[in-house]
Amino acid sequence: MRVAACAWSSTRPLRLRTSPTLTRSRARAASDSHASASSPERPGRERVVASAAETTGSTRAMKLDAHLHVWPSPSAYAYAPGKEPPAGLAECSTAEALLQQCDRAGVHGALIVQPINLMYDHAYVAEALRAHPGRFVGCCLADPSVGGGGAAALGDLLAPRGPFRAVRFNPGLWPEGERMSNEAGKAMFALAGERDAFVGFMCFHGLHLHVEDIKDLCAEFPATRVLMDHFGFVKGVEDPNWLALLSLAEFPQVCVKASAQFRVAPEGERWPYESTGPQLRGLVDAFGPDRVVWGSDFPYVEEQCGYERASEIAENCGAALSVEEAEAVMGGNLARMFPGGWS
């Protein structure tokens, strides 16, 4: 295991401010009619991302990270008990530390996902977005708790009212026994579609527990676009959940993050994570090269292979991607998903 290097420091710390159901076939038809076809096999994909053939050279060359986190130093922020960041990463996970890592690795920018240790306090990530225009796009955290913020709070966070352009659904935050497709979940999922925001699904305890829920939401709300976190938390192509993940390709609005390779690799496997090759190749073949995006899962990757190596995964994992496929996965797709997000 690689020990995180925290020798760098934040020279310019951020100012903290704490503070009626459609069937699936009808859903696909609705999505298909919403946008013109970008391929003969999968009509309706144009709204998710433009055709790879339409990608400009500058967009294709831009390397972008689709999944990572930042948080303030514990010396500058009072974390709730039990929500303190991991000790080895506590002091090297600020937005400025991330930018130093990105610059070393040639990564232009990233989609920052609200970290669980900050829960629903979005002030730090929001300030990072404002402080570094053209480098970051933000994904907030949905609050489905009883008496929680729900769709009302989400409405204040998502653009154009707020700075975020995506929202993460963590099923572990739903009340016990409740599904993500309950009343609160549907309201938030529908709102994301209305705001042209992506919904990310974190299926940490197994895709099989949530895949039907995800399909139901996608069927009822085909205008809402989806990003599956971390290969759907499927651990290799032999995992029984692999076919469940591939089954989501039938929904044109679903894309997948080929992120956090170390989380889904067999125990003991090290960079370049040979098991990632068949997974990445399989995702590109099933979803198409325009619906797969790379992500690092910084800062956690710092305790594994390190950020720079993570940014080289596409060309080293054995997925046999073409130059065009690799450029799309490593940044071109994300740039088109969030137009104007990076400059």
Features:
alpha/beta, 13 helices, 343 residues, disordered N terminus, TIM Barrel
Account of the protein in words:
By secondary structure, the protein is of the alpha/beta class. It has a single domain (24-337), classed as TIM Barrel, CATH 3.20.20. Helix content is 33%, strand content 12%. The protein has an 8-stranded parallel sheet. Strand 1, helix 3 and strand 2 (109-113) form a beta-alpha-beta unit. Helix 1 crosses helix 7 and helix 5 (150-157) packs parallel to helix 6. The chain is globular, with a radius of gyration of 19 Å.
Strand fraction: 5-15%
For the biggest β-sheet, the strand order reads 1-2-3-4-5-6-7-8
Number of domains: 1
Shape: globular
Instruction: Write down how many β-strands occur, each being a DSSP E stretch of 2 or more residues.
Output: 8
Helix/strand structural class:
alpha/beta
Rg to the nearest angstrom? 19 Å
Range of helix content: 25-40%
CATH class type:
Alpha Beta
CATH topology name? TIM Barrel
**Average pLDDT reading:** 87
- What is the second-level CATH architecture? Alpha-Beta Barrel
Low-confidence stretches: 1-5, 7-59
Tell me the span between the first and last alpha carbons: 35 Å
SSE sequence, one letter per element: HHEHEHEHEHEHEHEHHEHHH
- The fourth-level CATH homologous superfamily is Metal-dependent hydrolases
Note the main sheet.
8 strands, parallel
Helix count, per DSSP?
Answer: 13
Give the arrangement of secondary structure elements.
Layout: H1 24-34, H2 57-61, E1 64-68, H3 95-105, E2 109-113, H4 123-131, E3 136-141, H5 150-157, E4 164-169, H6 183-194, E5 198-201, H7 211-220, E6 225-228, H8 241-247, E7 254-259, H9 261-264, H10 276-287, E8 292-295, H11 307-310, H12 313-316, H13 323-337
Parallel strand pairs: 1-2, 2-3, 3-4, 4-5, 5-6, 6-7, 7-8
